[in-house]
Amino acid sequence: MRKFIIIINLLIVINLVSCSNLSAKENGINIEKAWARPALQGNPSAVYFKIENNLQETDKLISVTSQVAELNEIHMSSMVDGTMKMMQQEYVEIVPNQVLEFKPMSYHIMLIKLKQDLSLGDQFEISLTFEKFGEINIIVEVKETE
Ligand SMILES: [Cu+2]
């Protein structure tokens, strides 16, 4: 019986260790303050957030998926000859210790052809894939501004 208890204790310790590994992984790339503009089904919307790279190396955001839109693209807005243009980005690079802000008139995730309405207060999940860090699922809140 005593042996049995020791084994159980050991299992708990092993679990604790693997949990702390998990949180160490979360400290690698952090996504904060994710929000999206409200929009109706069939229309586009955009997702914004802050990416913090606490890895020792440069990483790249390479793809995005979600259940709420038919297409999810990484975009950059910029002024070209006095007009605002959006360019699709193959990836976005984040150097170590950098906080990169996805925000209006800059980097954003373009949700194209929404499959559902996004109303104020709604929350939905998107999945971001980084070349080195892998996949991160985040909750996005629908609101007018950050
Ligand atoms: Cu866009």
Descriptive notes:
This protein is α+β, with helices and mostly antiparallel strands and 146 residues long. The chain has one domain (30-142): Immunoglobulin-like. 17% of the residues lie in helices and 51% in strands. The protein is built from one helix and ten strands, in the order H-E-E-E-E-E-E-E-E-E-E. Strands 1, 2, 3, 4, 5, 6, 7, 8, 9 and 10 form a ten-stranded mixed sheet that branches. Bound molecules: copper (II) ion (CU). Copper (II) ion binds next to strand 8.
Q: CATH H level: which superfamily?
A: PCu(A)C copper chaperone
Q: What is the first-to-last residue Cα distance?
A: 56 Å
Largest sheet: 10 strands, mixed
Total number of distinct structural domains: 1
In terms of topology, how is this protein built?
Elements: H1 2-26, E1 29-36, E2 45-53, E3 59-66, E4 69-80, E5 83-88, E6 92-94, E7 99-102, E8 107-114, E9 123-130, E10 134-142
Parallel strand pairs: 1-10
Antiparallel strand pairs: 1-2, 2-7, 2-8, 3-6, 3-9, 4-5, 4-8, 9-10
Bound molecules: copper (II) ion.
